[in-house]
Fold:
Amino acid sequence: MKRHLLVYLLLSAMTVGVSAQSNLIVDQIIAAPTLSFGQAAFLAISAVEDVNNSFDIAGASKAVAEKSWGFKEVNADQKINLGEYCYLLMQAFKLPAGMWYSLFPGSRYGLREFQYLGFVGQNSWPDEELSGELALRIIGKILTYNEAKE
Structure:
């Protein structure tokens, strides 16, 4: 445990100056009562790829549109709902999918996969509004899930 803490502290100290802009963006996301597509894209891309200090919300939206994740020409300021966010994260993290998601990939079955995996509550709906805090909690659960698989 002490070794993990030491490694974490060293990595944090090394990245303080590099990630100042990213920290400001994450602070804005946490405070957001409803998440925009650009903010969701920023979280998804940042969680799965190494990004540089100049990476921002507009760049994240553009990066998601360029990938073959099923999102074409989405406005970064457009609100994203829980189902769309789950679908975005299914694509970004390449999470295992059940039969229905494999047959009909999209927000409805993306959310169902997240309910099954325990990332969101069983009473969640695809068109539910998504806060920044909930979005970060979901990513935390995915990272914990992926770490447990390794």
Remarks:
- The radius of gyration is 16 Å.
- Confidence is low (pLDDT under 50) at residues 3-18.
